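Design job #97: recover the sequence.
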């Protein structure tokens, strides 16, 4: 038995950071999608779907298929952290409509990732 703590595998670190990157992409799109949804909800939904599809395509090409399940787990972890961060930033005085629109974007991304995992 080793006396020293073993370092994390590079694969684990890379997947964790990739999950964080997906959450960062979601966070960057929250405000533009929320603004667009105030004007045209259908266009906001279409734009968000297009953005999620482009991320999925990028990941499909660049992540080996045998790591997809691990990537989905890491991405769901990162998006859950983003969800908690968003809830805490709004606090008790936050507008419920704003919170719901932001959460819809998160849930759409998580749902599409879970669908991607099953494929």
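Job complete. Output follows.
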């Amino acid at each position: 038995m080793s006396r020293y703590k073993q370092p994390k595998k590079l694969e684990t670190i890379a997947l964790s950071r990739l999950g964080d990157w997906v959450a960062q992409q979601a966070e960057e799109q929250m405000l533009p999608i929320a603004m667009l949804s105030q004007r045209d909800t259908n266009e906001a939904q279409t734009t968000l779907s297009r953005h999620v599809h482009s991320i999925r395509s990028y990941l499909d090409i660049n992540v080996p298929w045998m790591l997809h399940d691990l990537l989905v787990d890491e991405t769901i972890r990162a998006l859950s952290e983003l969800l908690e961060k968003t809830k805490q930033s709004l606090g008790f005085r936050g507008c419920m409509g704003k919170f719901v629109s932001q959460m819809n974007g998160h849930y759409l991304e998580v749902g599409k990732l879970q669908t991607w995992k099953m494929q």
